[in-house]
């Protein structure tokens, strides 16, 4: 059974400085940003992680050193108990009363304080009757990877999500647990939970979400001979960072802690089908769309550190706010330049499905990066591409995270004519394999010049309609349409503000540049 469950975490990016005081008498949660670290501290990394850094020519630096033990001791002496520690951000999360807040901001080693509002919104918990992951497997050409013997073997994948209830007994995941493919599990919401309790304790329907994500990465049903995910032989590290019961509260610092834990173990590929945007109990604490800029939120800063300094490939769902006229755009950390943000397409035309969030026009880089079919949210399109990435990493373990990201983008069916609706389109396994083998790709993209208010294109397709993206510049879409094909010809009508138009034939892409 597939659960339509799109998880979005919401937090505030409000920095509290100087004499600003928190409102009300309640205990509130904050990040304490610290000034420096102990210079002689050893890296908090496993030998495997250190070896991988050397292989990728990524130097160890201060972000690999732990938070200062002396500062932690001073905080405890002041009656402040750190909750999570971030060596990347050089910060700790704490709960403070107004009196403790006034004391902490005066400490010489505290350079900043940032409030945390951990509201989480479950977009939908309706349960569809039939799973519909099979179409995406054919859309991305999964059999091509299978024929090449690529199943994610020897690739470690981290999954950060809201819960993994029933994962160890789900039919689609029996093969993973039978070979002990899940190596480590951590529950950052309830540290006292045992390994088995995480799989067998149901607090809300959100606890199924990580199980469905895991199935979309590695699921396979040998009885029915159905493949749900590409990375059927990968090794997994699971982290629960958010809870979905009652007030649907999640924790930003749990996400950062999980990322650093996985980095310390040498895990290079991460799937996180979570996004932070709005929905705060206090509307004044919501993010604004303009803050989806890749560097405002701490979670995006952490994601960028992971990409630039730790060699990690983070694959993130773009968001399900495409039909919300007050938002529409991607959430964070999908806005970070270094992550691979995944949108969702429909199954027939491969254009943007209505709910899929679009990329902000203010960004200097393309978001989402790529997209694929998912009927139930970008939460389930991201894991499909995580499995795609695992196959590439198995084929060539020496590739850096940025090289893998580049192959995925270049393998997509619209490349190089990407847009802020579906990125470069749907990755194709045949193209990825050719890129891995340093083979020349077949020429499937071409540009033509257009004049006047319309243009008639002769096209070779058996489809009755094709997807057309009308754009105001190279990447920003004014509107998408399903244009009818008549006797092998397509009439493209130009709007007043239209500068370029992408005609998507799936196996070919035509870019009209209007003069």
Automatic annotation (TrEMBL):
SUPFAM superfamilies: Subtilisin-like. InterPro entries: Peptidase_S8/S53_dom, Peptidase_S8/S53_dom_sf, Peptidase_S8_Asp-AS, Peptidase_S8_Ser-AS, Peptidase_S8_subtilisin-like, Peptidase_S8_subtilisin-rel. The active site is at residues 161, 209, 379. The keyword Protein biosynthesis does not apply. GO terms for molecular function: serine-type endopeptidase activity. It holds the Pfam family Peptidase_S8. The keyword Protease applies. Residues 155-425 form the Peptidase S8/S53 domain. GO terms for biological process: proteolysis. Keywords: Hydrolase, Protease, Serine protease. PANTHER family: EGF-LIKE DOMAIN-CONTAINING PROTEIN, PEPTIDASE S8. Belongs to the peptidase S8 family. This is Peptidase S8 and S53 subtilisin kexin sedolisin. The lineage of its organism: Bacteria, Pseudomonadati, Bacteroidota, Cytophagia, Cytophagales.
